[in-house]
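Researcher: Please translate sequence to structure tokens.
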Amino acid sequence: MLPDGVVAERAPHLQARVLRDLIDVRSALTSAERRAPAELVAAIDRLAPMLRFFRHGDGGLALFNGSWEGDRSTLDLVLARSGSNEPSPLTALQSGFLRLNAGTTQVVVDAGSPPGRGMDAMAHAGTLSFEMSAAHERLVVNCGIYPGAPIEWRRFMRYTAAHSTAVVDDTNSTEITDHGAMEYRAGNVLIDRADDQGAQWLDMCHDGYRSLFGIIHRRRIWLSPDGGDLRGEDLFLGPEGKPVAHPDKRFIIRFHLHPTVKATLAQSGQAVLMRLPSGRGWRLRAAGAGIGLAESIYLGEEGRQRRTEQIVLVGQVPVEGAAVKWALTRMEG
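Model: Translation complete:
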């Protein structure tokens, strides 16, 4: 377990499993009239708030590093048995996870390097990906992977393209070897966070594409105080202000949508309108890249493969670098 209370594999479903197992050990010791070691009690107290951190508005888990939504009732029971009422933090520095909350909007971001050797068997190349929910409805997701899914799906869902982040030249930001281990990890992940009068702002970057293309991926995200406006900027830059070493590589910024979201192109292809089951609407607009819709798949529910869609922003990285601005805005009425 990392110092911030996240399991070393950086996987929400393992967060729940480890916490449940430690609670069972504590209960067994109590039944045997034995005092639980202080280290075990402290571990439970650190794990529980971070399990809350990984839950969306619908009560299910965020989909990072081999996770699926999980059973809400089981998660409720585990947290109740933990005896911890400590709320989840907004920043987990050691593991690199960040959270934005405003109004009914919740955003969870993976701003950390994939786990190290020995802990990476199920890790995903999803650095700087994010998920977003509005009240109890998921909007932007990663593709996820449920337990027992076919082996080919388990491999594909580890790819960067299965996450709501940017991909350069159809290449994973962290290499996944034929044996399933990870090499050349997206490293030097830098994070800056600020809050101003209720608005929240993140500035993050990683160097996963530096050795191959001489490109640094930088992502900025801003959430309005009422949660109705999420703005982002993805930049593809040369390191230390230098030109891009291998220009004209194609980039794709992906926003995978939950299967319950209905999306349509609007404004002559300059925007995408999204409708949630509740009838609430959101709109995505972008500048600096072409915008479109493509097929996707969602494996975040146990035992189910569901077709869905993804919004794609496509462009090329010139020698001076590229910047793409986008905005997810709640549509009133």
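Researcher: Any highlights?
Model: The CA atoms of residues 101 and 107 lie 7 Å apart.
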